């Protein structure tokens, strides 16, 4: 390797740069890990006009349900809608053969919600991004 390495450092979030690295990593990963499909999952609660009021998005990957986002409009919170979305996602994941679930959440979001539903903390990032906390949870399905 050349001892005089010149790095190009950016702060622009260039999509092409990001995609180039993603594709290189994906090619490497696919050649080295066991075969498995990522299957998207979306569960939505909408008003009569089709406006989304709540929903959960994620994917199933092998034995895992990976929850990306769960959101419920403020005026619908505390009525069990979030629990029903989570339960629907877990049931669909079981139907797809999943045995585990994974989610991450910030301290100001919903750690207690996931704990209430049987999720166990795997680890947490303190001082994230500066003074908060980000939790990572798993659950056996």
From TrEMBL:
- All copies of the N-acetyltransferase domain together span 5-141
Q: Which organism is it from?
A: Pseudobutyrivibrio ruminis
Q: CDD domains recorded for this chain?
A: NAT_SF (cd04301)
Name of protein: GNAT family N-acetyltransferase
One GO molecular function term of this record is:
acyltransferase activity, transferring groups other than amino-acyl groups
One Pfam family name from the record?
Acetyltransf_7
């Amino acid at each position: 390797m050349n001892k005089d390495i010149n790095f190009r450092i950016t702060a622009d979030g260039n999509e092409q740069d990001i995609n180039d690295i993603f594709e290189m990593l994906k090619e490497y990963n696919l050649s080295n890990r066991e075969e498995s499909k990522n299957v998207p999952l979306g569960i939505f609660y909408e008003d009569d006009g089709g406006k989304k009021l709540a929903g959960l998005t994620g994917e199933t990957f092998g034995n895992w349900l990976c929850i990306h986002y769960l959101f419920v409009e403020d005026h619908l919170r505390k009525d069990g809608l979030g629990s029903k979305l989570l339960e629907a996602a877990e049931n669909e994941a079981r139907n797809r053969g999943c045995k585990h679930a994974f989610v991450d959440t910030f301290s100001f979001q919903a750690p207690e919600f996931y704990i209430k539903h049987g999720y166990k903390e795997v680890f947490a990032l303190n001082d994230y991004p500066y003074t908060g906390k980000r939790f990572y949870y798993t659950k056996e399905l």
